[in-house]
Amino acid sequence: MTLDQLQAALPEYFAPWVQALNLRAESFDAESVTLRLPQSDQLSRVGGMLCGQAMMAAADTAMVLALINHFGEFRPCTTVQLNTAFLKPLSAQDGLVQARIIRAGKALAFGEIDIRGAQDGKSVCRASTTYALL
User: Fold this and answer.
1) Predicted local confidence at residue 78, as pLDDT
2) Which DSSP letter does residue 12 get?
3) Residue 62 class from Cβ within 10 Å (0-12 exposed, 13-18 middle, 19+ buried)?
4) What is the dihedral of CA 59, 108, 77, 15, to 10 degrees?
5) CA–CA separation, 47 vs 60, rounded Å?
6) What is the CATH number of domain 3-133?
7) How far apart are CA 75 and CA 72, in angstroms?
8) For 97-112, what is each residue's pLDDT tens digit?
9) If DSSP codes are grouped into helix, strand and coil, which group holds residue 70?
10) Is residue 48 scored above 90 in pLDDT?
11) What is the CA angle 29-62-111, rounded to 5?
């Protein structure tokens, strides 16, 4: 897997509104994928805070890319559960969305996502996910 392959998966497998988040594949390793979620006025609410809906969509997207990285190819899947905790606002900086596979079996996959500020490195959102592998 390469960063270019992960980046190419975004327009191939995700809806146009997800593509409008302008996510960029930043890094990956054997267990995780990290995306950059750029700060923008379109994704911010009052006070310049990144909205929770954008963070949840980025977390879900990052986990699908982590599954692609894990399996070496796209496998159809669907989100069964996405549990999100917002720890603090993210303002005036991009977010780094790191999705890590906890376990991937034949029918289900489990993961954790940490979103942190790209400049200060502080965690702003944590999520856990379950996916059905189709």
Assistant:
1) 97
2) H
3) buried
4) -10
5) 25
6) 3.10.129.10
7) 9
8) 999 999 999 999 999 9
9) helix
10) no
11) 75
pLDDT tens-digit map of 16-46 = 999 999 999 999 999 999 999 999 999 998 8
For the chain, the domains span: 3-133
pLDDT at residue 46 in the model: 86
pTM for this prediction: 0.96
CB 100 within 8 A of CB 111: yes
List b or e across 91-123, with b for residues whose CB sees 16 or more CB atoms inside 10 angstroms. Answer: eebbbbbbbbbeebeeeebbbbbbbbbbeeeeb
Q: Amino acid identity, residue 26?
A: E
User: Cα separation of 24 and 8, whole Å?
Assistant: 10
